[in-house]
Amino acid sequence: MKTFLAWCATVVFAVTSYGQVPTVVTARDVKIDKISPSVTKSPQFNVSNTTDKRANYLAWLEVEVEFSIEHVEMVDELTFEYIVEINNKLCPGEVTHVNIPKGTITTR
Fold this sequence. Notes:
Number of strands: 3
Order of helices and strands: HEEE
Shape: elongated
Strand order of the largest sheet: 1-2-3
Oligomer: single chain
Radius of gyration: 25 Å
Largest sheet: 3 strands, antiparallel
């Protein structure tokens, strides 16, 4: 009887431990479908009852990436590292996404 209880405890422990193992996501599970860069200007605001102040409106680079997750139902955390070349200068960047479901996602 003690052997049977020990065996049951081992099976329960093995099943609960197996359920807590995180799923490993590889590059094969993530597919980058489309990368769309665009340049936008800084927003212009008008405020009444003040003096007019001139400002330098800057141009901003916006990179929109569409990617899809396959073979995995849910990804806890996924980090994309970008390196963009602007005027012969490399500009690195990093974006981390959390709780990503399976399917196609568009990010900026």
